[in-house]
Specification:
The complex is a heterotrimer of chains A (about 400), B (about 280) and C (about 300). Chain A has about 400 residues and is mainly α. Chain A has 19 helices and no strands. In chain A, helix 2 (about 15-40) packs antiparallel against helix 11 (about 190-210), helix 4 (about 55-65) packs across helix 5 and helix 15 (about 290-315) crosses helix 16. Chain A starts with a helix and ends in a 9-residue tail after the last helix. Chain B has about 280 residues and is α/β, with parallel strands linked by helices. Chain B has a single domain, classed as Rossmann fold (3-Layer(aba) Sandwich). Chain B is built from twelve helices and nine strands. In chain B, the strands form two sheets. A six-stranded mixed sheet of chain B has the order 5-6-7-3-8-9, sandwiched between helices. In chain B, strands 2-1-4 form a three-stranded antiparallel sheet. The longest helix of chain B is centred in the C-terminal third of the chain and has 16 residues, at about 195-210. Mean pLDDT of chain B is about 80; it is low at about 1-15. By secondary structure, chain C is mainly alpha-helical. Chain C has a domain at about 5-215: Orthogonal Bundle (ABC transporter involved in vitamin B12 uptake, BtuC), CATH 1.10.3470.10. Helices cover about 75% and strands about 0% of the residues of chain C. Chain C has 13 helices and no strands. In chain C, helix 10 crosses helix 11 (about 240-270) and helix 10 (about 195-235) packs across helix 12 (about 275-295). The longest helix of chain C is centred in the C-terminal third of the chain and has 40 residues, at about 195-235. In chain C, about 55% of the residues are buried. Chains in contact: A-B, A-C, B-C.
Chain lengths: ~400, ~280, ~300
């Protein structure tokens, strides 16, 4: 526990502090720039982009060695990974546009094949004399052991740029994600906006490769955005909420990882994000599952009660057992379907509203009323009390509600 | 919106069938059916009865719940309340007697399959998972294809056909099912005149064979020519009965409200008077 | 090709071919159902499935591994479906959230448990190890006729052979249901075909194929096996039956060529040692797909124009 608190307040050593700050920044950048690909329903392209960085890392290493370097320059490796990730992106786009294959097949094919090529290159590098200690495998699942200030700086700069660009371009990206045809009609180049979204994903992937690895970075791009969706209905806020969730996951994940042995940073970060996501899914006030269940039950009760009362009013038998149970429970009918006084009173009210609707539909024939006449919309929501009084007038004197 | 496309979770409360409520001479009996997408009812507390012989149209404006009614009757989408009987049985027990022609948009047109394959799909229930598609079975499929005038296209990929031709193939598939109740979702939507004639010819011959045909229909001008029974719906049931007495200006006005131009109503009324 | 081929190459090639076919068959339907990325999800959750199976049984053996992976795939699919429906989240993002979380959990458990005594490590799980599945005892082709020698074949071979046979039988048995439910789900439901159960069954079969192929190609490259051969096959024909046959041919071709290029290719370029066979198989399958995208007789969409015109 002490270890955890130390790590939480950055007191667990230089490296642990560096990792925590780096992971927090990376998480923020990933959450923010993952928002629009998610809203555009193309979240999994980032999975292909991430896997497609592997051959780039390998190629960059081979080229740097061939040019006489030791091949481990971080900037060089990242540049290589960006290059192949970009190629992968273009290939996906080309396949989806030019052939009959759907985008999902293109994503899967690029992901698998580029990763395969990357693995081939890694085995080539292992057989090179310079490659024995290259440690490129750490790009697969990330590694925080040897994190340097330089790595944190790369994350900070790259991440800030990605967040800033996301913020700057939020309007065109919102438009394209919401309604690409309309965006095109306004003169936006949809293809370029799409590529920009993916370029942001790619830059976050590249700067995060070393820390969480290419297989798990996609989780940081997707999960915070999905979790954030539960808390707001406004895309401009979602950027910051997703960033906050991502940042918290990154920071907390790194802290957990530093405070116990055999806790690899990347997976822990992802699991913290997953926990936040599950919490959001269940308990978010509007869109959460619990809220939805409560809402659905209420709605169902409302429909069955109304149908039951309509049947009582028309003196039809109540067919459904559930409806009958509901009315009996609310004291509106006896278990054998005979209405109680309260049930009769409510049925009379429903029947009166039905008759009012009949009059209203006759009076306001051309007003497009039909959409509101769905059985559930109260007549008071559509007409003023004066208008309703007028319907009542046309209906003649109200029928007295008799007690039975 | 995916939100709209996802029907609310089903609740089945379990029923035993009361024969008195589910007459066998009614092809499709619907009681108190409510279906909702989210909290907006698409169909509210609808009762309907389509008799075992004859041609019925389900008519109403866009978004009135016509397709929803069919799909909920078939059990393809869950219902919030209500009961459905097909020839006095639940849909589960009566599947073999029902053939369904979905709206053309619901199909993957790029699927690697031929016209003949599609028609044979209608026979799968009969031949089972592994049963051989024997000579007579194949001949039956070909006959159905012939009946809709598509025999020459048997080996075409389904996506290469025009909209009208596709619709005819789907009708042939339903014919292959050899059912007693045919449910069609907008069979004439977006088809050419020749297809429309071919389809209505087949449907009328089905009626003459004593089968029940129920179609979602959107063209008010042809209701009188094609159908003998009409069901008017706009979320709630507006009217139901023989075309002569039910398909009236008054009922149409109640169904369509302000959405139906007055001139259009006048035309229909003229047709009304001419009869 | 003599004794050395039988010793060092015959079994890896066979295992590669059988894995590729076992994955390609369900892959056809995944692609047609626009569920190619379920293949992605499965390939990632195989790892946690196997790790949990290992934790529960304490051993690396075929049946628990298969069950673990199939179970994990089912759990993943159910969770994805739940997130999709309950949370109104689009399928891709739901998949991305679930399978990465499960993969992370798998890696974490793997790191937390002592698996050094057994052959289960993350890198191996990601990259596969086809080259090690050799038949050292073999003395030549005649060993194939010697029952006592056959008993020394690597266990992975019989396992993948059984799985491949199972996949073929399942595909043939449910052919008609799969075809209708993939083409027109509403009609399938109206016929009373249990299309939900069928979809889950497809995922389970794909997961079983994935775990059997896991030995050979690792958990990530499996996705190339799921997608590339069927995708290329789709561009060759407009008949489902032909497409499935083409996909098996492409899968076989990828496995054989991939293995040969990985083993002998580097020598041709003057390198020493071999490169990853699994990676090479994925590469070849990608090249085949690229070829089909450029030259496949049915590569472009038809009917799109008329669909849009309507």
């Amino acid at each position: 526990m002490n270890l955890f608190l130390d790590a939480l307040f950055l007191q667990a050593g230089y490296n642990a502090a560096l990792v925590a700050i780096g992971a927090g920044l990376l998480g923020f950048a990933a959450g923010a720039s993952g928002t629009f690909p998610f809203l555009r329903k193309r979240a999994l392209i980032s999975d292909a982009v991430a896997h497609a960085t592997l051959p780039g890392v390998g190629l960059a290493f081979v080229i740097m060695v061939a040019l006489g370097g030791d091949g481990r320059s971080l900037v060089g490796l990242l540049a290589g990974s960006a290059a192949t990730a970009w190629i992968g992106l273009l290939v996906i786009e080309w396949i989806a546009r030019r052939t009959r294959l759907a985008e999902d097949a293109a994503i899967g094919a690029v992901l698998g094949v580029f990763f395969g090529v990357g693995i081939v290159l890694l085995t080539v590098i292992q057989s090179m004399s310079a490659g024995r200690q290259a440690g490129l495998e750490s790009f697969l699942l990330g590694s925080t052991a040897g994190m340097l200030l330089q790595d944190a700086v790369v994350i900070a700069i790259g991440g800030s740029l990605a967040v800033f660009t996301t913020w700057l371009m939020r309007r065109p990206m919102t438009l394209v994600a919401f309604d690409s045809d309309y965006a095109a009609s306004m003169g936006y180049d949809v293809r370029r906006v799409d590529l920009l979204m993916m370029a942001l994903v790619m830059s976050v992937t590249v700067v995060g490769l070393k820390l969480v690895g290419l297989i798990l970075i996609v989780a940081m791009l997707i999960i915070p955005a999905v979790a954030a969706r539960f808390w707001t209905d406004r895309s401009s806020r979602m950027i910051w909420i997703a960033g906050g969730i991502g940042g918290a996951s990154g920071y907390l994940g790194a802290v957990f990882s530093a405070s116990a042995p055999a806790m690899p940073t990347g997976p822990i970060i992802v699991l913290v994000a997953a926990a936040i996501f599950i919490f959001s899914l269940l308990f978010a006030p509007e869109r959460g599952v619990l809220a939805a269940i409560v809402r659905h039950r209420r709605f169902q009760v409302r429909v069955h009660r109304l149908q039951g009362l309509l049947a009582l009013a028309a003196e039809h038998p109540i067919r459904e057992a559930y409806t009958l149970r509901l009315l009996a429970r609310e004291g509106l009918a006896r278990p054998d379907g005979v209405p109680t006084n309260a049930g009769r009173a409510q049925a009379a009210k429903i029947a009166r509203d039905e008759r009012r609707w009949d009059v209203a539909r006759e009076v306001y024939q051309d007003a497009g009323l039909t959409g509101r006449y769905d059985g559930l919309t109260p007549i008071e929501d559509v007409f003023t009390s004066d208008e309703i009084a007028d319907f009542d007038h046309r209906l003649g004197p109200p029928v007295a509600v008799e007690s039975g | 919106m995916s939100r709209m496309a996802q029907p609310t979770i089903a609740t089945d409360h379990g029923h035993s069938i009361d024969p008195a409520r589910a007459p066998r001479d009614t092809a499709l009996a619907i009681h108190g059916l409510t279906v909702s997408y989210g909290e907006k009812p698409a169909v509210f507390s609808v009762d309907a009865a389509f008799k075992a012989k004859g041609m019925s149209a389900i008519v109403g404006p866009n978004g009135a719940g016509k397709s929803t009614l069919l799909k909920a009757a078939l059990g393809v989408i869950p219902r919030l309340s209500g009961e459905v009987y097909v020839f006095g049985e639940t849909i589960r027990d009566a599947r073999a007697r029902v053939a369904y022609v979905p709206q053309s948009a619901s199909v993957d047109w790029d699927f690697p399959t031929t016209v003949m394959d599609v028609v044979q799909m209608g026979l799968y229930r009969k031949v089972g998972l592994l049963g051989r598609l024997s000579g007579p079975v194949r001949a039956q499929a070909r006959e159905c294809l012939d009946r809709v005038g598509m025999a020459d296209f048997a080996n075409r990929q389904i996506g290469q056909l025009s909209g009208g031709q596709q619709q005819r193939v789907f009708l042939a598939r339903a014919l292959a099912q050899d059912a007693d109740l045919y449910l069609l979702d907008e069979p004439f939507a977006g088809v050419d005149a020749a297809t429309e004639r071919a389809i209505i010819g087949v449907l009328k011959s089905l009626k003459d064979e004593g089968k029940a045909v129920v179609a979602v229909h959107h063209d008010l001008a042809t209701v009188r020519d094609y159908f003998d029974h009409v069901f008017l719906i706009n979320v709630r049931r507006i009217a139901e009965g023989p075309v002569e007495t039910t398909f009236t200006t008054e009922h149409l006005q109640a169904t369509y409200g302000g959405r139906l131009a007055a001139t259009h109503l006048d035309e229909l009324a003229v047709a009304d008077g001419a009869r | 090709m003599g004794a050395e081929f039988v010793q060092f190459s015959l079994t890896p090639v066979l295992i590669g071919v059988l894995s590729a076919i076992a994955c390609a068959l369900p892959g056809n339907f995944l692609i047609l159902r626009r569920q190619a990325l379920i293949g992605d999800a499965i390939s990632h959750v195989v790892l946690p499935g196997i790790v949990v199976a290992f934790l529960l049984t304490g051993m690396i053996s075929a049946v628990p591994m298969l069950l673990g992976a199939a179970g994990a795939a089912l759990v993943a699919v159910v969770l994805i479906e739940a997130v999709k429906r309950l949370g109104n989240i689009e399928p891709g993002a739901a998949m991305g959230a679930i399978f990465t979380s499960m993969f992370a959990a798998g890696v974490l458990i793997l790191e937390q448990t002592d698996t050094s005594s057994v052959h289960l490590d993350v890198e191996h799980a990601l990259m596969g190890n086809l080259e090690s599945l050799v038949w050292l005892r073999a003395e030549g082709w005649h060993s194939l006729l010697d029952p006592s020698m056959l008993a020394t074949l690597p266990g992975e071979l019989s396992r993948i052979a059984a799985v491949c046979a199972f996949v073929v039988v399942a595909t043939l048995m449910f052919w008609r249901w799969l075809k209708i439910a993939t083409f027109d789900e509403g009609f399938a439901q109206a016929l009373g075909i249990p299309s939900t159960a069928l979809g889950l069954g497809l995922v389970v079969v794909a997961a079983i194929a994935a775990v059997a192929a896991f030995d050979a190609v690792g958990s990530i490259i499996v996705i190339a096996m799921f997608i590339c051969p069927p995708a290329a096959a789709r561009l060759m024909t407009n008949r489902l039956g032909h497409q499935v046959v083409w996909s098996a041919v492409f899968a076989t071709l990828s496995a054989v060529l991939g293995y040969v290029l990985a083993g002998y290719g580097p020598f041709w370029f003057g390198f020493e040692g071999a490169v990853s066979a699994a990676g090479m198989i994925a590469t070849v399958s990608g090249i085949i797909l690229a070829g089909a995208c450029v030259f496949g007789p049915h590569r472009s969409r038809v009917g799109v124009a008329q669909q849009e015109a309507r």
